[in-house]
């Protein structure tokens, strides 16, 4: 009987021993949820009326963090209610300090990344909005936060920085390709020769719209809607045709030809009228541009000429070519303008010309 009561007393003591710390943690967690829902919910509603502001950025950076902080306070109060040894208590306090400092670093990283993104949007022509700047800013912020955490728990960062300086050469050699891509990406952006949204063609054959420039590679999306990933070092050392510089408008030269019996003045007038109509009516054309027709030479069957028009950007050229060829064919047919078929005269070894199909007698 006495042994049973003793066991129950020990169990009750253990429950009391753990109940108060658990109560502190649960109450702190509940308070954190309430603060996050009521206070920060109200603040989010207020700052949502001014999108892109610094206050909105700061509130978004604190998302979920108040619950964590209040819970950390509860855990700190809980461990101080438990009779722990000084070594274990000091270890747990350091662990809590590390978690709190890491959460502060996370808030700072979110804020810095948001500031970089906002400034990139405001100065799109000067400061391209790409992932590489965001990645670099985030990495630097977390690196500084890590050094602060180590210093706060009593680990001197001076030997670490010294070791990094001494081992920098070895690290640079080991990460040669990675660093090459990183600095190549920074060079590409700072030189302003390549921007997200530009249509480019690389000397190795890849082409497409620049989607993003990260710390390692450049992402292109071709006309088939496929993604092409090219290392930044390859981009920096390649010959690139950028169809968006100095502006996105491009000139199109479309070759054509008419028979030798055609009235060339009439051909030029009709062609310019059709080309001007395409410029006005087809999306991607430039209505104010006056098309140009230039005769270029005497071909085997036709008098050759070029039609020069302009498109708003590289990808608009395909629909413009399509519409111009289709409408020219219809208009030439209506106007009686003939595009001759290729003709070849073949002479036999004895000097006689081989008869054509029209000259052959029916069997």
Automatic annotation (TrEMBL):
One Pfam match: MS_channel_1st
Residue span, Mechanosensitive ion channel MscS domain: 177-243
**Mechanosensitive ion channel transmembrane helices 2/3 domain location, by residue?**
139-176
Name the domain of life: Bacteria
Task: Provide one Gene Ontology biological process annotation.
Answer: transmembrane transport
This protein's membrane topology, according to the annotation, is: Multi-pass membrane protein
Subcellular location, record wording:
Cell membrane
Q: Name one GO cellular component term.
A: plasma membrane
Q: Transmembrane residues, as ranges? A: 15-36, 57-79, 99-120, 132-150, 156-175
**Residue ranges occupied by any Mechanosensitive ion channel MscS C-terminal domain in the UniProt entry:** 256-338
Keyword annotations = Cell membrane, Membrane, Transmembrane, Transmembrane helix
Family from the record: Belongs to the MscS (TC 1.A.23) family.
PANTHER family (UniProt xref): INNER MEMBRANE PROTEIN, YNAI-RELATED MECHANOSENSITIVE ION CHANNEL
- State the name under which the record lists this protein: Small-conductance mechanosensitive channel
Species annotation: Methylomusa anaerophila
């Amino acid at each position: 009987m006495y042994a049973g009561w003793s066991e129950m007393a020990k169990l009750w003591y253990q429950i009391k021993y753990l109940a108060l710390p658990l109560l502190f943690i649960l109450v702190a967690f509940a308070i954190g949820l309430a603060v996050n829902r009521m206070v920060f919910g109200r603040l989010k509603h207020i700052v949502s009326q001014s999108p892109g502001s610094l206050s909105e950025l700061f509130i978004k950076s604190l998302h979920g963090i108040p619950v964590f902080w209040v819970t950390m306070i509860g855990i700190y109060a809980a461990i101080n209610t438990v009779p722990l040894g000084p070594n274990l208590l000091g270890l747990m306090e350091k662990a809590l300090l590390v978690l709190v400092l890491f959460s502060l670093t996370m808030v700072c990283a979110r804020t810095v990344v948001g500031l970089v993104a906002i400034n990139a949007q405001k100065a799109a022509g000067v400061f391209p909005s790409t992932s590489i700047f965001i990645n670099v800013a985030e990495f630097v912020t977390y690196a500084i936060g890590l050094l602060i955490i180590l210093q706060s728990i009593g680990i001197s960062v001076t030997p670490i920085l010294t070791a990094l300086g001494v081992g920098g050469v070895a690290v640079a050699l080991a990460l040669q390709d990675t660093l090459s891509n990183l600095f190549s990406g920074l060079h590409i952006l700072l030189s302003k020769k390549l921007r997200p949204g530009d249509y480019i063609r690389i000397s190795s054959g890849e082409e497409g719209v620049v989607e993003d420039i990260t710390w390692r590679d450049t992402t292109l999306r071709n006309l088939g809607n496929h993604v092409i990933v090219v290392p930044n070092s390859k981009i920096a050392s390649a010959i690139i045709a950028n169809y968006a510089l100095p502006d996105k408008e491009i000139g199109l030269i479309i070759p054509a030809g008419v028979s030798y019996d055609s009235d060339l003045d009439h051909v030029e007038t009709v062609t310019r009228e059709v080309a001007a109509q395409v410029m006005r009516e087809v999306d991607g054309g430039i209505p104010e541009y006056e098309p140009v027709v230039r005769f270029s030479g005497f071909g085997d069957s036709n008098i050759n000429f070029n039609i020069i028009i302009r498109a708003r950007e590289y990808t608009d050229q395909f629909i413009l070519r399509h519409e111009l060829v289709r409408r020219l064919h219809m208009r030439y047919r209506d106007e009686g303008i003939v595009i001759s078929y290729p003709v070849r005269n073949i002479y036999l070894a004895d000097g006689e010309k081989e008869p054509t199909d029209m000259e052959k007698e029916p069997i």
